[in-house]
Amino acid sequence: MNEKVKIKSENMTRLSQYREQLLKNPRLTYLFIEMTNSCNLNCLHCGSGCGQKNYEYIETDILLKTLKQLAGDYNPQAIMICLTGGEPLLHPDFFKIVEEIVNLGFPWGITTNGTLIDIKKAKKLKDLKLESVSISLDGLKENHEWLRNVKGCFDKTIDAVKYLNSVNIPVQITTVIHKKNFHELEEMLEFIKTLNIASWRIVNVEPIGRALKYNDILLSYEEMVNLIDFIREKRYSKEIDFDVCFGCSHYLSFEYEHEVRDNYFICGAGIYVGSILCNGDIYSCLDIERRKELVQGNIRVDRFSEVWENKFKEFRENRVNKSSKCIDCIEREFCNADSMHTWDFEADEPMFCILRKVGIYEI
User: Fold this and answer.
1) How does pLDDT run across 212-244, given as a tens digit for each residue?
2) What is the pTM of this model?
3) What is the pLDDT of residue 50?
4) CB atoms within 10 A of CB 189
5) Complete DSSP assignment for 304-349
6) Burial 206-223 (b: 16+ CB within 10 A, else e)
7) Sign of CA dihedral 96, 100, 103, 106
8) Alpha carbons 317 and 76: distance in angstroms, whole number
9) What is the pLDDT of residues 261-311, one digit of tens each?
10) Three-state DSSP state, 142
């Protein structure tokens, strides 16, 4: 065993042990807040099914009360607040809520399509100590606008990146790769080099939300492996001055773990990731299928910290023991049956596996 393999093996074993500790002693580190399920775009792959009609947004007074309680129950500096949606900037009290987040001492970030950010908003976000911003850019102009389902949104997104750059807010671009834009990875890279970003986060399209209606855009196993190889190659290229990484989703095998992102895989749903839905429901990861039995409470009637401490039982167990598809896997201790957002709750087994035939990808 060479030194690199030995170190990786030791690290992954320690991570497995750490995950077991988290299952018993969860620690809230990221709180995702779905500000609204309204969106000015209509993306074909939207995991939450957001759109321009019949939307909700979380009530400002109820959310602020919850945040104040949270700051009193925990150390606010140790919890990252992540504002998302839909499009979070559509919330009528977005900046009022952010001001309170900052006053309470929470670090915060935002996930946005960028189309509503002008120079005035960029300056305000800077004044409010925005720590991280992830802007979705899903291909060059034609493919981005095809997936986002709104003409003209590409140029607005690029303008947002430029506005944020002008006030020195580091920008992460997140790109969803599918069959239609897979072929333009190299072209995208060359274009993104011109945008002065901090990082390029690449993810594969997932079989969740509206993407379930478009199975023909899911990557094949070969395309998925090629995507990971692309990320690994570019990540270590001396010609690129920004970070290139794969998203946090999915265990990628012993070969690829820690090769395409800084951290080893661990699904944090319900063990260090919690969320509040736009209707006030307390949930785990926002990407997980919305199921009634997975709702842990509601901030209108429940104190978030009490729910966090006493519920989320289905997320704090060793799932790998449930699935017959995982029994004989030699890497089972490292992945715990992969991500909860691609867990088949009816069959009690993972839909995604990069190591063997499970659901979408085939070896």
Assistant:
1) 566 678 888 899 999 999 999 999 999 999 999
2) 0.93
3) 58
4) 17
5) HHHHHHH--GGGSS-GGGT-TTTTT-TTHHHHTTS-GGGEETTTTE
6) bbbbbbeebeebbbeeeb
7) negative
8) 27
9) 999 999 999 999 999 999 999 999 999 988 999 999 999 999 999 999 999
10) helix
One DSSP character per residue, 169-237 reads --EEEEEEE-TTTGGGHHHHHHHHGGG--SEEEEEE--SSGGGGG-GGGSPPHHHHHHHHHHHHHHHT-
Dihedral-angle region of residue 85 (phi above 0 means left; psi in -120 to 50 means alpha; beta otherwise)? beta
The helix (run of H) or strand (run of E) holding residue 298 is strand 297-298
CA distance 357 to 263: 25
Interatomic CA distance for residues 52 and 48, integer angstroms: 13
Q: How many CB atoms lie within 10 A of CB 106?
A: 23
Please give the Cα distance from 182 to 106 (Å, whole number): 37
Could you give the CA distance from residue 7 to residue 10 in angstroms, rounded to a whole number?
A: 5
- Token pair 């002693």 is found at 25
Q: Tell me, what amino acid is at 223? A: E
Q: What's the chain's Rg over C-alpha atoms?
A: 20
Backbone angles phi, psi at 224, to 5 degrees: -60, -45
Confidence of residue 323 (pLDDT cuts 50, 70, 90): confident
- 3-state SS class at 16: helix
Give the model confidence (pLDDT) of 122-162 as tens digits.
999 999 999 989 999 999 999 988 888 889 999 999 999 99
Per-residue confidence (pLDDT) for residue 319, from 0 to 100:
84
How many Å apart are CA 309 and CA 274, to the nearest integer? Answer: 11
Q: Which two tokens stand for residue 106?
A: 């929470």
List all residues 6 or more positions away from 54 whose beta carbon is below 8 Å from its beta carbon: none
Looking at residue 275, its pLDDT comes to 98
Task: Please give the structure tokens belonging to residue 351.
Answer: 């839909």
User: How far is Cα of residue 211 from the mean position of the Cα atoms in its chain?
Assistant: 16
Tokens of 244: 């290139």
Tokens, residue 297: 């409470």
